[in-house]
Amino acid sequence: VEIRTHSSLRPTTVFCMASSTAFLLLLVAALHVCCCRGQGGHAGTGVAAIYSLGDSITDTGNLVKEAPPGAFETIKHLPYGLTFGRPTGRCSDGLLMIDFLAQDMGLPFLNPYLAMNRSFDHGANFAVAGATAMDPADQFNGRFSMPFTANSLKLQLRWFKDFMKSTFNTDEEIRKRLQSSLVLVGEIGGNDYNFALFGNKNVSEVEKLIPAVVQTIIDATKEVLDMGASRVIVPGNFPIGCLPSYLTAMAEPETSAYDSAGCLKDLNLFAAKHNAQLQRAVAGLRASYPDAAIAYADYFNSFLSLLKGAPALGTFRRG
């Protein structure tokens, strides 16, 4: 497996994470098990469509569709899309987790919501690279300056609702469709922290944002469930202390700042705190919606498993 990293340290640049095939396949397996064997829900039944909200981990082309001419040119050129033979608008040289998930369920790749003249018979992708969970108008209550993005989870949820209302005639038809669909709410929230941390805020300051970010994700998930969704996946955050951008920008002189995998301990602890709060909130959702299968996707430990097992999976090349 060849893993390419394409990271910029400029806070006004979209945070894109390159993906390895092994990482994606492992997570798809985990997501499939969570979804199809979750509490409540409709275990073993087919999924007719996938609807996805999130950021660059899931965006299949919305950012480049809405961007003005000349913006985000990097994503529009190889090596992005290398395994497709052409750039696709994905922040990856190949398939994303959402692509593998669609394949695993026998569905076509999801078209981006902003694409024109495309089929949405099997779902739609509302994710936008660089998106935040919190809305720019509410972000951090003015404590932090916002980057360029206006593509918050709130906006994506509005797109989702508008799409469903324009595609189906009644609320009952929407509910029926969603009961045979899978909805991903995330991964989202990582950019809320990225923009703050790369804006020179320290970890203890940014940690205060976790409750609001988590609540925003949960509120959006509730709205999706209230519309009729019966199978929902809510992913957690990655171990950001292992990401090349953070390892470069926030390098520490003391070896004690790093764990055995070479990751920054404080940043991984921060991400783990976000995930712990999100997991508790997802557990609360399961109690409130006993007839739905609601899964928390553990990106944190899946990433670490692959990082620590990397020698058995292939070679790394930084590019």
UniProtKB/TrEMBL annotation:
Gene3D superfamilies associated with the record: SGNH hydrolase (3.40.50.1110)
Domain of life according to the entry: Eukaryota
Transmembrane feature ranges: 12-33
Pfam family, one: Lipase_GDSL
Entry keywords, A to Z: Glycoprotein, Hydrolase, Membrane, Signal, Transmembrane, Transmembrane helix
Molecular function terms, GO-annotated: hydrolase activity, acting on ester bonds
Name the UniProt record assigns to this protein: GDSL esterase/lipase
Keyword set includes Transmembrane: yes
Source species of the chain: Aegilops tauschii subsp. strangulata (Goatgrass)
Family that this chain belongs to: Belongs to the 'GDSL' lipolytic enzyme family.
